[in-house]
Design a protein that fits this description.
FRG1, single chain, rod-shaped, 65 residues, actin filament binding
């Protein structure tokens, strides 16, 4: 992913003084950024199952009646 500045140039780090600059019109390897996060991704195994089909068998039968 590369971030584009207000001047339609992509952000990068100037190697001389470690400043963030937006002076390149085409994104290359020096403009790509990686974002890391410490949060744990919660995976819901029932996300593809409709809500009326979630729960125990008794509840599912009541939902379909």
């Amino acid at each position: 992913m590369a971030l584009q500045g207000y001047n339609d140039c992509f952000l990068s780090i100037d190697p001389e003084d470690d400043a963030v600059v937006a002076n390149v019109k085409r994104a290359g390897p020096d403009q790509f950024i990686k974002i890391r996060s410490q949060t744990v991704k919660e995976d819901n195994p029932l996300k593809d199952v409709p809500t009326e089909e979630q729960g125990n068998i008794g509840q599912i039968e009541i939902n379909y009646v």
